[in-house]
Amino acid sequence: MELTVREMRLPETELIVDYFFRRSTPEHLGKLGIDAAQMATPGVWQEGFRREYELPIEERAGLFLIWLASSAPVGFSSCDSIEFGESATMHIHVTEPERRWRGIGTACTLQSVDIYFERLKLKRLFCQPNAFNIAPNRMLQKAGFKYLETCMMKPGPINFHQAVTRWMIER
Q1: Position 101 pLDDT exceeds 60
Q2: Cα–Cα distance between 129 and 166 in angstroms, integer?
Q3: Structural contact between residues 163 and 141, judged by C-beta atoms closer than 8 angstroms
Q4: Whole-model pTM over 0.85
Q5: Of all residues in the chain, what percent carry a pLDDT higher than 90?
Q6: Full set of structural domains in the chain with CATH
Q7: Concatenated DSSP letters for 27-66?
């Protein structure tokens, strides 16, 4: 199976909306540390993507990558909290439940890291999954991220206050 990671095209951001609003169960969102009540509507998300794609890369609040297995989408990564030339925070999602725990996340994360460092001219990249979500924490360690800490925080606007494990990779 050939795995490819590349920047998402604007129409492909529908994969993100579909994943969070139609394909993820309340239990899965909870495992990700997401409070569904804090999520804007799909239309608001799509409008936000449209605005982001109009900006030059140096001014964007987010960068979005699609993960493909034999040309079919199997996941995505996004980056926010971007300080161009310095650091950003990465998010990772295998969207096909039957493909989880098969090494796709690790392989695609490694490719994603390379793209983020190159496109955003980063020195450091962070990832902070829910501490109780075992898969991404194990995967980040395998991918060469360094464990920083486990702490209580609200990692983003759609998250609830939770235990997160903070990881970092430098170049």
Answers
A1: no
A2: 7
A3: no
A4: yes
A5: 83
A6: 3-125 (3.40.630.30)
A7: HHHHHTTB-GGG---HHHHHHHHHHHHHS-GGG-S-EEEE
pLDDT tops 70 at residue 99 = no
103: three-class secondary structure by DSSP: coil
∠168-110-73 over CA atoms, to 5°?
A: 125
Identify the three-state secondary structure at position 89: strand
Q: Are 102 and 140 in contact (CB under 8 A)?
A: no
| Dihedral angle sign, alpha carbons of residues 108, 76, 121, 147 | negative
The dihedral formed by the CA atoms of 9, 23, 48 and 119, expressed in degrees to the nearest 10: -40
Give the Cα separation of 153 and 127 in Å (integer): 13
> Can you tell me the mean pLDDT for 19-26?
92
Contact present, 153 and 139 (Cβ < 8 Å): no
